[in-house]
Design a protein that fits this description.
Number of helices: 16
Number of domains: 4
Largest sheet: 7 strands, mixed
Distance between the termini: 112 Å
Helix content: 40-55%
Mean pLDDT: 83
Strand content: 15-25%
Radius of gyration: 37 Å
Number of strands: 19
Length: 549
């Protein structure tokens, strides 16, 4: 009895010093005599039950019943090994005085909790005593798991961003190097028109690729931040699919690939949609098929209409399949993650790793999704789903088919020859000297007389002191010192002169998103032309607004 009282006195002392406070339950065992004198001290509300076990009882029976009844199956072997009296005696002899281990236990049926089991070893006269305490650490483990998962996500994101920056450094420098190199080659071959033309063609190809890289990064940022706005215009979705296929035809023909198009039953050809975003969605997938399919490969795109759940809406399934390089199964869960690229293509083919992430988010915006199946070395299949509102045929304007230009230089030459703005006066407002020179040269080459202003303040002064109706058109940059384009436009519109309210003011800016265009129109601008300049778009805009006084 004295031994027992002494042992429980030790427990009380440990509790006072905080060593075994906050425990769910605790017990004291005499390992030398293989005995537990008293039932365990169990906290209020705890459901641990040792059944018909009578105290005092053998220590071995006590821990055996608890282990079998409450310790989770996967931890039972470890629990029995650590709590074995002979194992504890060995540990004490080797110098251990405190043993702590964690395990899962099922105290309440259907629930699994994490417990921390602490064992203090000490000598009491000739006997080896163990004082054990068990604490519920489920919340601590959950928090630890959440923190670990969060840390892993942060580390994964940081790794992906680092890889993205490194890849972008390479991918951006590659076309930039071509632009600078071809410019230098052209500069020393000015007398060789053929060589200069070849250099200019390569500069154009590299410039377009560089622009595509930048657009992907900007689009992703807009979509990811929720700032992307979409418009809805009526169009023929069947024609759009054929147009996109034609757009990639030259690229695929360079690799001797065959692209086939098939149309299922389409009941609603005419729909309201943001044409730019739908094109971006399909081109991201179809463009990848061309990019990652080897020479003489086969690519198929099909479109069919599916049953829609909402009235006045049509749902579509667009399938893009190829027999290209495919992807490893392990990569498929990450294909839509930003910055991710498969190991079998990373470094070999230029790209941001953002295209598929952008495509899926656009599909989500259209109440759809993208599903992918792929096998390494066999090819890939992408199923694109999206839903759009019906449009009537009379809502869809007949589109003028652009001529199949041999190349962009031929297109530019024809456009310049077509343009004739003699007798027209244009004010170009731009703070970048090189851009101002380029814009003025392009517009004056179309026959117009061009005046320039280096900021919004100069533009307002020039317009204020000009003759009535002198300017037929004003091209206005947005980001400028002194006064920006928005402020300058407001001041011009507020002037008390006849032409201030109706002179066409066109934003000519690198602010290329829809909300930028909406802001331009809100302050009184008539139209929006983005940089880098598309000559055809510039010409169409000038023709549209020069005819309006």
């Amino acid at each position: 009895m004295k031994d027992r009282d002494s042992q429980y006195g030790r427990v009380q002392q440990k509790k006072k010093t905080g060593r075994i406070n906050c425990s769910e339950w605790s017990y004291v065992g005499n390992l030398t005599k293989n005995i537990i004198y008293e039932p365990p001290m169990i906290s209020r509300g705890n459901r641990i039950n040792f059944g018909d076990l009578k105290f005092p009882c053998k220590y071995h029976d006590f821990v055996g019943i608890y282990g079998r009844n409450y310790v989770a199956q996967t931890f039972q072997d470890e629990f029995q090994k650590i709590t074995d009296e002979n194992e504890l005696l060995k540990r004490y002899e080797s110098g251990e005085r405190k043993i702590v281990f964690d395990y899962k236990a099922c105290i309440t049926e259907g629930e699994e909790n994490w417990l921390r089991h602490g064992m203090l070893l000490m000598k009491e006269k000739q006997d080896m005593i163990v004082i054990s305490y068990v604490k519920d650490i489920t919340e601590e483990k959950i928090e630890e798991k959440n923190m670990k998962e969060h840390l892993e996500k942060v580390q994964h994101a940081n790794k992906e961003k680092t890889e993205f920056i490194n890849r972008m450094s390479h991918d951006i420098r590659t076309p930039l190097n071509a632009i600078l190199g071809m410019t230098q080659i052209a500069s020393v071959n000015l007398d060789d028109k053929g060589r200069v033309k070849e250099c200019l063609e390569k500069i154009m190809i590299s410039s377009n690729h560089l622009m595509n890289l930048i657009n992907e990064i900007l689009d992703f940022e807009k979509i990811d931040s929720g700032m992307l706005r979409v418009s809805e215009t009526p169009l023929n979705i069947v024609e759009l699919v054929y147009d996109l296929t034609d757009m990639l035809k030259e690229q695929s023909e360079r690799k001797f690939q065959k692209i086939t198009v098939s149309m299922g039953q389409i009941r609603h050809k005419f729909v309201y949609v943001d044409e730019l975003r739908l094109k971006e969605l399909i081109v991201n997938v179809l463009g990848n098929a061309v990019k990652y399919t080897q020479e003489k490969g086969k690519i198929q795109i099909s479109l069919r209409e599916k049953r829609a759940k909402r009235p006045s809406y049509a749902c579509y399934e667009c399938i893009v399949s190829d027999n290209g390089i495919g992807m490893e199964e392990e990569f498929l869960p990450y294909i839509f993650d930003p910055f991710s690229r498969a190991d079998n293509v990373s470094g070999k083919i230029l790209g941001t790793g953002l295209g598929m992430s952008i495509a899926r988010k656009i599909a989500w915006m259209m109440d759809g999704d993208i599903v992918v199946n792929s096998k390494l070395g066999k090819g890939s299949e992408f199923k694109i789903y999206f839903c759009l509102k019906h449009a009537e045929i009379e809502d869809v304007e007949e589109k003028k088919k652009d001529p199949p230009w041999e190349n962009e230089f031929a297109a530019a030459r024809d456009l310049f020859h077509k343009a004739d703005f003699r007798g027209k006066n244009v004010l170009v407002v731009e703070d970048n000297a090189l851009n101002l020179e380029i814009e003025a040269e392009i517009i004056s080459s179309m026959g117009a007389y061009v005046e320039t202003a280096e900021n919004g303040r100069q533009a307002v002064d020039k317009f204020r002191h000009s003759d009535l109706y002198f300017y037929d058109l004003v091209f206005m940059d947005i980001r400028m010192p002194e006064l920006d384009g928005y402020q300058a436009t407001k001041l011009i519109r507020d002037m008390e002169r006849e032409d201030a309210g109706n002179v066409p003011i066109i934003a000519m800016t690198a602010n290329a998103f829809m909300d930028d265009e909406m802001m331009s129109r809100k302050v009184g601008m008539n139209d929006h032309v983005t940089k880098p300049l598309d000559i055809k778009k510039l010409l169409d805009t000038m023709e549209k607004w020069m005819s309006v006084k």
